Each structure stands twice: as structure tokens, then as C-alpha cells.
Amino acid sequence: MEATLAPARPDPARTIRRPRRLLTVVALLTLLLAGLPVVNQPAAAVQDVVDYTGTGALVLGAESVNVRDCAGFDCDTIGTLTVGERVVIAGPEEDGFLPVDSQTGDLSGYAYALYISIDGLPAPWLEEGAAGCNRVALAFNIGVGQPFDYGILATLQEWEVPATFFAMGWTTDRDPETVQAIVDAGFPIGTHGYSSIDLPTSSDADIVADLQSSADSIRAVAGDNWIPYHTPFAASTDERVRTLISAEGFLPVGWRISAADYAADADPDAIWERVVPNIYDGAIVEMHIDAPNSAASTGVALPWIIEALLARDYQFVTIPDMSLPCGVTTSDLEGGSTADATPAATTPEASGARTNPVVTAAG
């Protein structure tokens, strides 16, 4: 597909001639073998078979999470858990799923482990997806505060590229029409916090208040396109921050590739250089859409990047899809009212979507 919104792109052959930079990809071996996304957990908690039976846990990262009758995405769904609901771990992890019992005692089964935060353990968080299916996810943070570049949104729509947006609460309150435009285009949107505070140096109460204020602002505009995912301002986070974020029912999200496009002197060639030569299977790429020079930098580089990665047979997916194993997308798991609004439904994986007995938001 030819984009019409940007100046002429560089010779596509440049993507072949440029040497790929060495990548240091920290992978959790057990999760990769299970076909699961890579999340930061202590090595002992992943490599050793640890039984947390009887330990409490919290549901996070989705408005509702499927509980299945066995450990697998092809197992029947027997019920759902809601975000923030407490459960009890009923046995050791199996193939990326945890056996859980609801606190009410009326639901027992297997839930996808990424959406279950076990008490006393570091919170799960998503920095990259599982390798094996050539996926890339674009994450656009909104919070620099300059005018929103609608041309970037139009480029994503023209190329039919899924993306996920993370808005700050203060920009949402000031310019709700920007979040509404994202919603109208069908893209999912999470929170980037309410304001530009340094989370690791903030108090517990301030972190929670910032998170909840942003969620209230964004959810009021985004409605069904709201997702309980959080990206930290300036990529500044630590274990305490992530634990607080997950305790509120949000899945912390990070990235290993940044376009660094937030400054007034951002340059499209420099953005291309930061992204394309460093790309890898499962990468999350952070960009901005409201920086001082977004239109002339990210707006110009984005179609170049899309074309280069498509030429390498990469598939663009949303952040919620990147949190799932290869071959599984949110469109496999959700009903029409939500999946119809998910841009990932246009990606190649969605064409073979299964029909589940009960379908909800995740897992």
C-alpha cells in the first residue's frame, strides 16, 4: 500500500544494506519455551518450579479475564474474573496458566499467568513479546503537551497498522477531542499517568493518586476502548512502582526501543535509525504523537518504518496482543462488542480466530 501523507521515502533497499545492530535481548527461557511473552520476573521464580498454592493474588491487565477448564487457550472458558478481583492460587503454573479459585468459591480453573499478580512476588510487566511470529507493537505516549499530530493517526489508518496509545490525564482533560479521535479510529488506549512526575521518587500515595486520576479522565472519554495498561513517564520505573501499579489492576508496560522523538529537534532520519536497524521479533517501540516536532519527524519517519518492517515480514499488533503467545490475539478471546473496536482484528493472525464458548477481554 502506498502512503500519500509523507514526503518520498528513502530507497527501500537501505533497509537491506544497513547492518543490523547487535541486540541484547534478555529472555526468560522458560516463558519462551511455553510460547509466552517475556515479562520481568526474578529468575528463580521462573526457572524453578515453585508451588504458590494457597497464596492470594490479584487480577490485572484486563477488564475481565477468562477462566478455563484446562491450561491452554484452546480449552473451554467456564467463567470470568474481573480486574481487581482477588483469587487464591490453587496449584503450580502449567504451560503459562495458573490454577485459581475465586474468593467466593464458585469458580475454579486456569487463568493466563500474566494477568495474575501473586502476593509477595514482583509484579508482572511487559517489556517485549514472545519471539516466533515476527510481531512488532507501536506504543504512542501522549503527554508532551504540544498539538496532537492527526497526520500520524491518519498514516496508521491508511496503512491499516494496529497501534496502542497511552495518554496522560492532564492532556485528556485539556483536549478530550484527541482521545476521542483515537477512540473513533478504533485504537485501544491506556494510561501514561496523569502528570509528568518521576514515579520512583514519588510516594506510594502520590503514585496511586496519579494513576487513578488519569484512569478516570481517560475512561470517561475512551469508554470500551479503555485498557488497564500503564506506561511510565520518561520510562522511569522500578519494582516498587510496578507493584503499586499492578495492585490497582493495571499491567505495567515498558519498551526496549524508543524513537526518542519527544524533543523539538527530533529528526525523521534519526528516528528511522533508532527503530529499523534495532528491531527484533517481539519488540515494543515507543513513540510520541504530541511532541514539538511530531509532524515533521515522527510523521515523516512513520511510513518509512512501516514500509521497511512490512518488507521484512513483520506483523504489527496492539500491546494487548503482544502480551499473548504467538498465534493468539485478543480477537480470539473477545466478543464482537470489543473485538470489533480492536485494530489488531485486521492483522494476519486474526484471520484464523477461534470461537470460544465464552469470550471476554483476555486470557
UniProtKB/TrEMBL annotation:
InterPro entries: Glyco_hydro/deAcase_b/a-brl, NODB_dom, Polysacc_deacetylase_ArnD. The keyword Hydrolase applies. Residues 335-363 are annotated as: Disordered. It holds the Pfam family Polysacc_deac_1. CDD domains: CE4_NodB_like_6s_7s. Signal peptide: none annotated. It comes from the Bacteria. Residues 335-353 have a biased composition (Low complexity). GO terms for molecular function: hydrolase activity, acting on carbon-nitrogen (but not peptide) bonds; metal ion binding. GO terms for biological process: carbohydrate metabolic process. This is NodB homology domain-containing protein. It comes from uncultured Thermomicrobiales bacterium.
